[in-house]
Structure formats: structure tokens, C-alpha cells
From TrEMBL:
It comes from the Eukaryota. It holds the Pfam family Peptidase_M76. This is Mitochondrial inner membrane protease ATP23. It is an enzyme of class 3 (hydrolase). Residues 1-14 have a biased composition (Polar residues).
């Protein structure tokens, strides 16, 4: 046997494959071994992502079922979801279980809106029912804007920026408690405005037509005053 060959029965390991600290496996021992590796700082960022992907795959059915149950509950009992649904219906739209999908997402986002297909809720990213309510309200504001203002999502960054400002402002995701306890944003003044601006810039920056962060900031600033003041279909920002 050549010295370069592995011993019989062993699995060859590429020399250039870095150890991320993640151990694959669905058994309880391996699961806790990975958790302790994270807590002890022995797992790389790549390993943490591998751990999250494995967890999401393992819990996909349960996550989607819980997401669908919470979605249906919110359509019955959430004031903001019911109000947005009624106003979307008045504009000729229809959002319900048939076009609001709970799915496992591979990119780290909470949801999305597509004018042709409806709303996507990333079941594996939902922390709790409150998080799902904020995410659903955000995407429903996009749906309202699409019907009410004929938003050009693909070719007009100003249109997209305006809807992102309104969605972050009106959905409740930028209320003080959410920023303070969930995201570590501890300012006591101008917190809501700063959250809305930050999230709008990130969303615009991710669009294909945006050149860079500076471009996104410029577009958001151009439409900020009129779009932040526009609370339709609500009378005011109440969440």
C-alpha cells in the first residue's frame, strides 16, 4: 500500500478542508455537542451556519405547521392584519391562506412580497407569533402599496424605497420595545425614525438596481419626508 493512501476502512479528509467545529448528525448527543461548541466559541461562523441549516431542515415540517397556524390566527384576531386585509380587499386584492405561503427559506430573511404570487413567510426565521405578525404586516403594506400606488418594483428605486419606509414604519417592527429588547438599539429619542431609515436602506441596497450603500442612502433620503408622513391606510402610526 502506498504511503499516500488512507488506512483501510477510513474516510479520506481533504487537507484543505477547514474544521468549522460543526458535527453533522440528528441524535441528541451530537445536537448538544454542537450547542456547547457554539457556547464555548469553538465553532466558526461557517459552522454556525451549517448548524442552522441542519436545524432548519430537521424542523421544517413543524416550523411550517406552526407558521400556518399563527398566520390563520392573525387573520382572525389581529387588528392590524384584519385592517390591512380589509383595505387590500377594497382595492381589489385578496390575501389569505391560498397566497400567503409558509416555507423554509435558505437566505436569512423573514419574508417577501411578489405581485404575482403573494407573500412568503420564512417559517424557519420566525421567532414567535409577534415576529410573524410584524413580518406579515410589513409585506401586506407592500401589497397595499402595489395596488394603491402602482409601484414599479423592478425599475424605480424611489418607488421601492418609499414602500420600504412605509412598511417598516407601519408594521410595528420598529416600535421601541422591539428595537430595545430584540436588536439592542437603546436610544430613547428618534429611535423609530432611525430604525425605519436603517431597514429601508438595507432593503434598497439589496435590490439589483442599487449600486452600493451610498446610493441606497441617497434614494431613501430623496423620498423620506413624503413617504414617512404617509400613513395610509391608517390614520396614524399606532404600533
Amino acid at each position: 500500500m502506498s504511503d499516500s493512501q488512507p488506512p483501510s476502512g477510513s474516510t479520506p479528509t481533504p487537507e484543505n478542508k477547514a474544521d468549522t467545529g460543526f458535527q453533522p448528525g440528528d441524535d441528541t448527543f451530537t445536537h448538544w455537542r454542537n450547542i456547547f461548541a457554539i457556547l464555548m466559541g469553538r465553532m466558526t461562523d461557517e459552522g454556525k451556519e451549517q448548524f442552522r441549516v441542519a436545524r432548519d431542515l430537521r424542523n421544517e415540517t413543524e416550523d411550517c405547521k406552526r407558521c400556518e397556524t399563527q398566520r390563520d390566527y392573525l387573520f382572525q384576531y389581529s387588528p392590524v392584519i384584519r385592517y390591512l386585509s380589509d383595505n387590500i380587499r377594497q382595492l381589489g386584492g385578496d390575501l389569505s391562506g391560498h397566497n400567503i405561503y409558509c416555507r423554509r427559506c435558505t437566505n436569512r430573511k423573514a419574508g417577501g412580497f411578489d405581485p404575482e404570487y403573494g407573500i412568503l413567510l420564512c417559517a424557519n426565521e420566525m421567532k414567535d407569533q409577534g415576529h410573524l405578525e410584524d413580518t406579515l404586516a410589513h409585506e401586506m403594506v407592500h401589497a397595499y402599496d402595489h395596488l394603491r400606488f402602482k409601484v414599479n418594483w423592478n425599475d424605480n428605486l424611489r418607488h421601492a424605497a418609499c414602500s420600504e419606509i412605509r412598511a417598516s414604519s407601519l408594521s410595528g417592527e420598529c416600535r421601541w420595545a422591539r428595537e430595545f429588547f430584540r436588536r439592542g438599539q437603546w436610544k430613547l429619542t428618534q429611535q423609530h425614525q432611525e430604525c425605519v431609515r436603517r431597514r429601508a436602506i438595507l432593503s434598497v441596497q439589496a435590490r439589483p438596481g442599487c449600486q452600493d450603500k451610498a446610493h441606497a442612502e441617497r434614494v431613501v433620503n430623496e423620498v423620506w419626508d413624503s413617504c414617512f408622513r404617509d400613513t395610509r391606510p391608517f390614520d396614524e402610526i399606532y404600533r
